[in-house]
Design brief:
There is one protein chain. This protein has 16 helices and 18 strands. By secondary structure, it is of the alpha/beta class. The protein has three domains: 126 residues, NAD(P)-binding Rossmann-like Domain (Rossmann fold); 158 residues, Rossmann fold (3-Layer(aba) Sandwich), CATH 3.40.50; 164 residues, 3-Layer(aba) Sandwich (Rossmann fold). The protein has a six-stranded mixed beta sheet with strand order 8-10-9-11-12-13, sandwiched between helices. Helix 3 runs parallel beside helix 4. The protein is elongated, with a radius of gyration of 25 Å.
Length: 471
């Protein structure tokens, strides 16, 4: 990965000073203190300036009546004021030499009214004349833990290699929260809203060359510039996987996208061509994107498409084999030599050791045998990814007293087997089991193993990984 310090958008992610316009001394309300308080909670290291016409002190910081009153240079402004009040403030930012403005404000082109569209054109004209960039309108802005930028105070402070851009502010937040809970850590999350200026192509271009980013995810309702998006995705093709959830694929979805961000969803045929030619990976929904991001971000790339499934048994194994076949994966039959060794480890009569390798739940209380099974399966040169399938409900039963030992033993086995690994867990959704699952996810994420609820989730994600690296 190349160094990104020279990219023209690098300053967006490393501002030295930030002003928040529209913050009041009243702590109630979604936007009044949210952005400012989040930056304080995140311990942003630069200068923070609340802007309020009545000045005073807000969130323990000295407030200023206007952008012009801020002492010294100002890099970045977050704006949360009514749309009709934005032009003079944008003009003031331009005179101050502000580099970029993030507009949480909505009701521009997304309003569907001529007045809103003209307001957007007016502020864009002011910004371009000054060489100032605009994010949004109708966006949450940037989460970049390495520089202590965030739009949500509960997100983790430690960085990872996953980046996500989103026209939807809600999806930007949800992807970050869901991903975090499942073990992902982020380099950047970018909510860019209506894309009146900076758009998906600009941010993909930046992330392709960002040394902190290894995987790029995106939620896109409509492209502002199809040619630029094609160029950005083509550049990404040989460097990093790009996972895209495309919103607005139906008539109803396209109408909603237009009212949401003012985006024209575009021809489905054109989008199909874009995916085919750029090799970007199309995600059918938000959940698939999180599942696949986990696999790309955490796992070592498998050296082939041979999969071994250990656990489950019976009908579970049959459906797991079907899911692998549907995802373009191979479940090779293990050699007779390995099968014979497995019969000494998995002694239950009638249990299959061909692959999938049945390992009945009542045997889960023997962690060493389960680890030995993993070891024998991993000795096959035809196996490139191992997917253990365990029952987490044992963590809240009398028989589950050994679950912690099983997890630790499995973690140790994963480090020595020399193969990529994913974990599938069955769970009874009691509070205790859910808490146990969160702990398990984080433990396995630290050693590069994504955890899934179902086998179909895991193999679908693995299929995308194999497809990408085969290309």
């Amino acid at each position: 990965m190349t160094n990104n310090n020279s990219h023209p958008l690098e300053y967006l992610f490393n501002p030295h000073s930030i002003a928040v316009v529209g913050v009041s001394s009243n702590p109630n309300g979604f936007s009044n203190q949210m952005f400012l308080q989040t930056l304080i909670d995140f311990r942003f290291q630069g200068s923070l300036y609340p802007i309020n016409p009545h000045a005073g002190t807000i969130c323990g910081l000295k407030a200023y009546k206007s952008i012009s009153d801020v002492p010294g240079p100002l890099d970045y402004v977050i704006m949360s004021i009514p749309a009709d009040r934005t032009p003079p403030v944008i003009a003031e930012c331009a005179r101050k030499g502000v580099k970029a403005v993030s507009l949480f404000t909505a009701n521009f082109a997304d309003s569907g009214h001529r007045e809103g569209r003209e307001l957007g054109e007016e502020i864009l004209s002011i910004a371009r004349a000054a060489g100032m960039r605009l994010m949004g309108p109708n966006c949450m802005g940037i989460y970049c833990p390495s520089s202590r930028l965030s739009f949500n105070s509960i997100l983790p402070r430690d960085s990872g290699n996953m980046a996500f851009i989103s026209q939807s502010g809600r999806y930007a937040q949800e992807f970050a929260k869901w991903g975090t809970r499942r073990g992902l850590r982020f380099s950047k999350v970018i909510s860019y809203g209506n894309a009146i200026d900076l758009n998906e192509s600009d941010f993909i271009d930046y992330l392709v060359n960002d040394s902190q980013t290894g995987v790029i995810g995106a939620y896109i309702e409509g492209a502002r510039n199809g040619r630029e998006l094609f160029r950005a995705l083509t550049a990404a093709k040989k460097k990093k996987p790009v996972l895209i959830v495309k919103g607005g694929n139906t008539g109803a979805g396209a109408r909603t996208a237009n009212s949401h961000t003012g985006s024209m969803a575009g021809s489905i045929t054109l989008w199909d061509t874009l995916f085919n030619q750029t090799k970007a990976l199309r995600m059918s929904n938000f959940e698939e994107a999180v599942d696949t991001a986990l696999a790309f971000s955490l796992m070592h790339p498998p050296k082939g498409n041979g999969v071994a499934i250990v656990g489950g048994g019976g009908g579970v194994s049959v459906l797991a084999a079907d899911a692998c076949a549907n995802a373009g994966l191979n479940i090779p039959v293990l050699s007779r030599k390995i099968q014979q060794k497995l019969r000494n480890v998995v002694p239950v009569a009638g249990t299959s050791v061909r692959n999938p390798v049945d390992y009945a739940p009542h045997n889960m209380h023997e962690p060493e045998l389960f680890a030995e099974t993993i070891k024998q399966v991993s000795s096959s040169p035809d196996i490139h990814t191992i997917i253990p399938h365990i029952a987490l409900e044992f963590g809240v039963s009398e028989e589950g007293k050994n679950l912690g030992h099983l997890i630790d033993t499995l973690l140790t086995a994963s480090k020595t087997c020399g193969k990529s690994m994913m974990l599938v867990t069955d769970i009874i959704e009691t509070p205790e089991a859910i808490s146990e699952l969160d702990t398990v996810r984080q433990k396995f994420a630290k050693v590069g193993i994504p955890v899934y609820y179902t086998m179909s989730q895991a193999v679908r994600a693995l299929g995308h990984v194999i497809k990408y690296y085969r290309r």
